[in-house]
Amino acid sequence: MFETLKKLKYGARVLLSRSGGQPETVDVNGRSTVIMHAGQGAPFVYLHSALGESLMWLPFYQTWAKEFRVLVPTHPGFGKSGGFDQIDTVEDMAFHYIELFDALGLDEICLGGVSLGGWIAAEIACRWPERVKKLWIADAPGFWVDAEPLPDLFRVMQDRDALRELLFHDPNAHMAQLIISAERKDEDLMTAYQSMTVLARLVWERPYNPKLAQRLHRVRCPVLLLWGAHDKLVPPSYGEAYRKHLPQAEWKVIPNCGHLPMFEREAEFVEAVAKFCR
Fold it and tell me: Which domains does the chain have, with CATH numbers?
C-alpha cells in the first residue's frame, strides 16, 4: 500500500508539472525537433538519456525552471523529432544540437545530460567550448574502461526485471517499478523500439569515442561530474575517466543510486546540478 501511494504521489507531481513545459517544434536544417521549455533566466539545456524522458515535462524540469530557462529537446529518432536518417554517430548528434542552438539564438548555455545525453553534451563542449558556460555530465559513457567493460544493454532490453536490476540500485523501489513497470503497454513497446533503434545505430559497433579523451582538454568551462555510486550500466570508473581529462571538474558521487539519478535520487541530483549552474 505504501509503495502504491508513492507511485500515485509521483504521478500527481507529473500531472501538476505538465502545465509548466510548453512544447514547440523547431526546424533544424530540415529536421523537425521537438523541444519543451519553461522558466526564465540563464539558458539551461538538458539532453535526455536513451530512456526518452524528454517525452513529457517531468517534476525535476519544473524544479529547475524556477531558476533557469530550461530547454529540453528530444533527440532525432525519439518521439516526434525527425531527421534520424541523417544521424549515424554521437558526433552527428553534437552537430545537430549546435544547429538547434543556432536556430534558437542560444550563444552561451548551461549544458548537461544523463547517460547518452551526457556523452552528447561532452562532445558538444569539446568542439564548441565558447558556447558552453557550464557543463555537467551524469552517468555517461563515451570512454572504454578495460577493467569494467560496459554490459550489453541490448540483451536485457526486453527483460523488465533484468533491466531494473541494471539501471537501479534498488530495483524493487517504487520509482524503479514506476519507470520500468512489469506491465507492458503499446506506447512502452514503441518507446523501447525507438530507443533500441537509436542506440543500435549510435553505439552497436563501438559504444565509446576513442578520440574523446584527446579532445576534452578543449573544454574551458567549469565542469560537474555526477555519478550514481552503484551504477551498474556505466560504473563510476567511467566518471573517473572523464575526471582524468577534465582536471577542473567537481566530482560528486550520489550514494544509494544507480544509473538514473533523476528518478532514484531526484532531490539530491536536482539540487547538485542547480547549485553548480547558479
Answer: 19-155+183-277 (3.40.50.1820)
